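User: structure tokens for RDD family protein, please.
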Amino acid sequence: METPSLMRRLGALLIDWIVAALSAVAIAGVNYPPAPLDQDASQTFIIIGFFILEVGLLSGLLGRSIGKRVMGLRLENRNGQPIGVPRALLRTALLCLVLPAIVMTEDKRGLHDLAAGSRVVRD
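Assistant: Done. Predicted tokens:
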């Protein structure tokens, strides 16, 4: 098991964010870029909602989101299996808070991974 670089993980995050934003534009009619938070925060929160649902569902069921698939990563529990939808949704929601992802252990597991009992590995 190889721990992926932060650049690879950030690349996956960027791809997932773009997919979520484009989905929100196509399905919910959100403008992109969204209006500033002080003018209309709802557009940003809709995009965040799409991000949580897309990444959480795909990661929980398949062990990888679209971004992780493109970057050659997968999300797993200690047994090498997908973590399941509830824990993947928790992990993704914590990721959106940013701070849990920045605070990391020596093996590059953020607080969001510790809370969900997950780890990101290279395929």
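User: Anything notable?

Assistant: The mean pLDDT is 94.
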